[in-house]
Amino acid sequence: MSTHQITPADEHLPPLELPPGALDASHPDYENTTGNDPPEIEPIEHRIRLDIIEAGGLLSHETHPPTPLARQYIQKTLVDTYESERRFFPSYDRLDNFLGEAPAFLTGELEPHYRELEQIRADRRKWYTELIPKNLDTIQGTADSLLPLHANTFHGVVIVDANTDPIEYADEHDLDVDDIIREAQLDNHILPAEYGVTLPAPLLVGEFASGSTYAFLPWSDAVVCGCPYKQTNKWAVMCKHELAAASRLANAYEGDVDAKYVLPIDVGVDIPQRARRFVSPTVAATHTPRKQR
Questions:
Q1: Which domain of life is it from (predicted)?
Q2: DSSP label at residue 169
Q3: What is the rounded distance in angstroms from the CA atom of residue 233 to the CA atom of residue 225?
Q4: What is the pLDDT of residues 13-60, one digit of tens each?
């Protein structure tokens, strides 16, 4: 498997070597094998992140707030994205009548495939109309543990493997030992190496007010949280840690367009922007948040 190497500005840091699945889908070396690789960050996930950032966040202390602007943007995005996917499915209006007109043998050959496509389309519709809103309701309901936002720290670190001594590594590379973390010290459900990231690696770690420490893993032209909720619920487009990250960006970098969708470094080493990219530039250039009319 080929890797894509990014050299940090800080010469004391190792290169960030990423697998093909971490690249943008339009990159000639991009590759994601369903069933073998982690699931890609779907376009809807990038769009929802952007919606939250542009709306000013989605975390509030209010007990019964009005529908937040971010959720209004997201609802419109969900409808538009589902509608845009219709072109991937053939139109099978009056499917039973259609199959009834075919010879029996042909009907027997075609019907299972048509029915399977219909189920895939129904599952996709359920994801957009039920599961994603439920996912967002759930994380909004549990995100109080991450408030106030400034209590969460984004730490630029070098992740090393179990055979590397952090003190020795820090001494050899003229780094602070507090910025060297063994992979096993993370609370991640999925570790960076399992995402194909070559160690040692300069990555962003979220040290959250809830007490958990999760590395953000470069994938699909952005980063994804390694927490159990996000990694075990494949239908989830966001976890509360990603929600906190999006809300943090919503309140920062107002005058810095280039860094608008890149997570900050509060402490630690100057890791590459690619290890902090929260929204794909491709999506950022093509998606405009809007409310339903």
A1: Archaea
A2: H
A3: 12
A4: 999 999 888 888 788 888 877 667 888 899 999 999 999 999 998 876
For residue 264, being part of any structural domain is answered with yes
d(CA 18, CA 29): 11
Q: Is residue 292 part of a domain?
A: no
* pLDDT, tens only, 128-146: 999 999 999 999 988 888 8
Query: Is the backbone of residue 36 left (phi > 0), alpha (psi -120 to 50) or beta?
Result: alpha
The number of domains in the chain is: 1
Is 278 a member of any domain?
Answer: yes
Helix or strand (DSSP H, E) at 267? strand 267-268
Q: Say how far apart CA 95 and CA 91 lie, in whole Å.
A: 9
Contact predicate 18/197, CB 8 Å:
yes
Do 222 and 211 meet the contact criterion of CB atoms below 8 Å apart?
Answer: no
Tokens of 80: 């538009």
Closest to 152 in 3D by CA, of 213, 70, 201, 203: 213
In a domain, 131, yes or no: yes
